[in-house]
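User: Hi! I'm working on a homework problem where we have to compare a predicted structure to a textbook description. Could you give me the structure for the chain below?
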Amino acid sequence: MKNYDANKVKWIDSKDEGSVKNPSFKEKASDLEAAEELISKTKKMPKTQKKWEIFPGKNSFYCDGRVVMGRQAGIFYVTLFLVIGTSGLFFAFDCPYLATEITPVIPVVGAVLFIFVLSNLLKTSFSDPGIIPRATNAEAENIEREIEQPSNGVGAAYRPPPRTKEVQVKGQSVKLKYCFTCKIFRPPRASHCSICDNCVERFDHHCP
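Assistant: Happy to help. Predicted structure tokens:
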């Protein structure tokens, strides 16, 4: 084959006809093609989904799942507007008079209370309220087998098994209720929220 040689540029083609016909060269070429095909398939692999992306409840997630909010987000925005709006009117019109005529301590206390209320509102609205994960298919089948009771040939007189379970907590007998939606036995003080569609721990303090 022809080689191109100049003063500053030199091109040399090392692939002659003999090397192309060489079996070892063809084997290396096939291995290189297989490796390139494997790399292209690896790049096309589907993205792994996170738990919040396949979450079965009705909560809304933001910031890559770091922020969780309830279904009715409009109520949060109205509350935030009322808190900031009323506090802004107080600081704009009342605080100058109170600071000059009475004492500057009142605006300072008002600012501290405003920051405290706003921070707690944001923390409550954006944090996990205590959602209890639902049972997987295998766990649900196992629980169904545990609570299933044989009919013993009674036939029509058969009654479904009770959906409760008693456990011992610090020597005290505690009755757990079964959730038909989440397929789990709820811990004490937990209940299923119809708005979030989740079992929430300490439901008595849950504000969806």
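For your comparison, note the following. The chain is about 40% helix and 15% strand. The first strand starts at residue 4 and ends at 5. Good luck with the assignment!
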